[in-house]
Automatic annotation (TrEMBL):
UniProt keyword Magnesium present: no
Domain PKS/mFAS DH: 364-417
Single Gene Ontology MF annotation: fatty acid synthase activity
Native source organism of the sequence: Aspergillus tubingensis (strain CBS 134.48)
Biological processes annotated in GO: fatty acid biosynthetic process; secondary metabolite biosynthetic process
UniProt keyword annotations, A-Z: Transferase
Protein name: PKS/mFAS DH domain-containing protein
PANTHER family: ENZYME, PUTATIVE (JCVI)-RELATED (PTHR43775:SF18), FATTY ACID SYNTHASE (PTHR43775)
Amino acid sequence: MLGRGSLKHSPLAAHTIQHLDGILQDAHDAPSWSLYEELTADGAQVQRPELSQPLVTALQLALLALFQASNVVPQAVIGHSSGEIAAAVAAGYITPEPAILIAYYRGKATLEAVYQALVGMMAVGLGPDQVLSYLEGSTIEIACINSPQSAIFSGIKSELVPIEERIKNDGYFARLLHVDAAYHSHHIKSVAGRYEDLLRQHVEWQKHSKNKKQSLMASSTTGKALETPPGPAYWLANMVSPVIFSQAAHELTTGPEAVDCLFEIGPSDALSGPINQTKNAASSSVKYVSACKRGPNAISALLHAAGTLFMGYLISLTAFNHEGGNTHPAFVSDLPNYQWNHSVKYWHESESSHDWRFRKFPYHDLLGSKILSSPWTNPTWKNVLRLSDITWLRDHLLGDSVIFPAAGYIAMAIEAI
């Protein structure tokens, strides 16, 4: 159920997945499974690379289509590992059709990898300089530098396990990932040739340079901004080279191309930790928002992200309405142009209501209140005298009887005038 909530909530996202499904079914060595069925199924097999690569990319492209339909245009983009595929689409360098094929063939090639021993990857809560002492004497490589306090190792599992124990014993975070591949290391190079052949033979590549409509893409593969659409050689390097996400993220928070909001598009907020660590290290006030979060409230996270962007960016929320689809709202032309325009009154108020709201005098102990709608040229007053309300009247006695004082009548006439 990787994207069940998003796909069932948004017809546009579902349509995007179905379109990408058609691209894969027409591709060389087409899959026997469906993107839509896998994304909405219970317990999707996201640990299998031939599934996880295209599934995650497809979900990112569906979310991207949703926000693009809402007029969200990024100033700059950055991707992490295979996330650069969808990032290249967001930046305008490639279209969704070759993007899903790049991800699909990446998974196919990874499946064919042959390792001499069981391999895996491990996340650690240490920076690149701090981890070197733990890697001495091993073949483990730094696969990803996520932030000044976060990295990912890649290599043989039998070497990763004791390193994990040492790091934990020293009081730092360390956890083996549910991955049976060794991305971004020399181990994955065994399928590099196969991956490159699939890309060159079965993906249609665009042959144009960067134009004004494209956004800046800070590459976490090269550490530099892309100038031309990435081709087979780039995506090969993306799979086998270390991910230098921290450097690219730092440029977007403090460099000349710094942005004011970092918006993560993916199946979860997996990069929230590294991004916040990078922000804190740079003393940056850049806001972070994630389109999705793990758990049953995925739709709430999506709508919260849209609402957060809406507070500071002119976006259309139509695409986020359940029945929005491709429909357009109808405009009511006979309403005021501005909600604060009160030059025309639509409230027909009665004279009694107006008299009560704008009464000139408070309630009087003897006179009471003016009868509503009676004119001031001939006002009429009404009151009910109760000894419990006007206790001083008890003091005007004739024998044992309380008598209203004659001076009271004079006082009422004077007060009424």
